[in-house]
Amino acid sequence: MEAFLKQLILWLIALPLLAQSNVGELRLKVAGQDGLALKASVELSSDATQFHRFFDTDDSGLLSARTLPFGLYRLRVEREADVQNLNNRLNVIDFAGLFSGYAVAPPRNYALRLTTTF
């Protein structure tokens, strides 16, 4: 009976060691300068562990990457947006050379891609 109790105590002491894991988790929130959440594409890669994956944040800008092997990672966050009429005014062109008069051009549209690598 005494030997059984010793083995039981040994197993109870060693039990938490079985719960250890060799993987981790990354939680990330992408937000603008004003604090509002942004949808973005995230690339996570590690040369040491041969890991390379793409993720997308949800509507609240959150991302949770689970079961990541321990190691150093390169994180790349990319946000693409269309920007219209940056100055909120029309473009007026003055033809003072060969022609006389003005031409009104529509507001310009820009495609903007922001990329940050950590």
Describe the protein's architecture and organization.
The protein is mainly β. It has a domain at 21-82 and 112-117: Immunoglobulin-like. It is built from one helix and eight strands. The strands form three sheets. Strands 3-2-5-8 form a four-stranded antiparallel β-sheet, with no helix packed on it. A two-stranded antiparallel sheet has the order 1-4. It has a two-stranded antiparallel sheet with strand order 6-7.
How much helicity do the residues have? 10-25%
Q: Structural class of the helices, strands and pairings?
A: mainly beta
What is the highest CATH level, the class of the domain at 21-82 and 112-117?
Mainly Beta
E-strand count: 8
Radius of gyration from the CA trace? 28 Å
Gap between N and C termini:
59 Å
The biggest beta sheet reads: 4 strands, antiparallel
CATH-defined topology of the domain at 21-82 and 112-117: Immunoglobulin-like
Give the low-pLDDT segments. 98-103
Order of helices and strands: HEEEEEEEE
Global outline: elongated
